[in-house]
Amino acid sequence: MKRVYNFSAGPAVLPLPVLERARDEMLDYRGSGMSVMEMSHRSKDYMAIIAAAEALLRELMGIGEDYAVLFLQGGASLQFSMIPMNLITDPASQSADYVMTGSWSEKALTEAKKLFGDVRVAASSKNVNYSRIPAQEELTLNPDAAYAHITSNNTIFGTEYPYLPDTGAVPLVADASSNILSRPVDVSRYGIIYAGAQKNLGPSGVTVVIIRKDLLGRNANLPTMLDFQALAKEGSMLNTPPTYAIYILGLVLEWVKEQGGVAEMEKRNVIKADKLYAAIDGSQFYLCPTERASRSRMNVPFTLAKPELTDGFLAGAKAAGLVTLKGHRSVGGMRASIYNAMPEEGVDALIAFMREFERVNG
């Protein structure tokens, strides 16, 4: 078996020990005689799995009992609708603020506007192709807004908030899909943190929502499956949850804890990102389109000074076992996603290939 270094933005690389553990437990989960895929979600074995996953997430992120933790379906994209539906109780008098930093914040704003017309753009960096994060002093926040929404890391444009916006008494809502667990966060400063699992938490199919309990039950006229309060009351068991995805998520959380927790993840991520950015900045052959102060530790976009060599770079990288490096069409070039599970050796291998490609083609 030869595994590649997978730089995909998502679904993304998983820790090898997690895959090996899932392989070993595939046919017989801890003496149950069946796979987790086959278990009733109401069974004693499965209830222990989902409870352990929640407990581990609370431990790793320091989530207090004043927050509910939900394991939902529909991806982070469903949250673009669920959040305004649950938090805006009077569309005639309430609004929400959105900070625009990329394609995903645009999608979130679009979905909110479909439901409620009075949704404001509090700041935007679209005029510079989302190459930077607006500073705190650029945010024009409404103190009476139902919530303020940010996308904490932007996979396509390779930017990440270098600070936590101060929204005062307005609940801060963050789409943290692509940098959750990559660095410690003070959960108590957020109203809601939500994340699709398929980047840093596990496989696709499950979305984590961490919501302050006082934000539950604000709208009593929602479809049951879109009601945070109803979902929290039933412990994410209103219907059959994505059982196997939650099981893998739990294994990833165990791996993070075994590695030393979120602080250790941040330490490793800083090393990996610093190495890769140094390789780009130290060359006139490679260019990074993002402002230095806003650079993401998770997603590193770069282009070639000779764009006509891009296809050759990608083909050569693939032959060298470095895959899924093609950049998004919005920015072109390449994008290396270096989430928690990407080992430092993978970044070293990419840098070595980049140097050799420059030597031959520069």
Topology (elements, then pairings):
Layout: E1 5-6, H1 16-24, H2 44-61, E2 67-72, H3 75-87, E3 96-100, H4 103-115, E4 119-124, E5 148-151, E6 153-154, E7 159-160, E8 172-175, E9 192-196, E10 207-212, H5 228-233, H6 243-259, H7 262-281, E11 286-287, E12 299-304, H8 310-319, E13 322-323, E14 334-337, H9 344-361
Parallel strand pairs: 1-13, 3-4, 3-5, 5-8, 8-9
Antiparallel strand pairs: 2-10, 6-7, 9-10, 11-12, 12-14
Helix pairs in contact: 1-6, 2-6, 3-4, 7-9
Verbal overview:
- The structure is a single chain.
- With 362 residues, the protein is an alpha/beta fold.
- The chain has 2 domains: 16-259, Type I PLP-dependent aspartate aminotransferase-like (Major domain) (Aspartate Aminotransferase, domain 2, 3-Layer(aba) Sandwich), CATH 3.40.640; 261-361, Aspartate Aminotransferase, domain 1 (Alpha-Beta Complex), CATH 3.90.1150.10.
- It contains 9 helices and 14 strands.
- It has helices at residues 16-24, 44-61, 75-87, 103-115, 228-233, 243-259, 262-281, 310-319, 344-361, and strands at residues 5-6, 67-72, 96-100, 119-124, 148-151, 153-154, 159-160, 172-175, 192-196, 207-212, 286-287, 299-304, 322-323, 334-337.
- The strands form 4 sheets. Strands 2-10-9-8-5-3-4 form a 7-stranded mixed β-sheet. A 3-stranded antiparallel β-sheet has the order 11-12-14, covered by helices on one side. It has a two-stranded parallel sheet with strand order 1-13.
- Helix 2 (44-61) packs across helix 6 (243-259).
- The two termini are 34 Å apart.
- The mean pLDDT is 96.
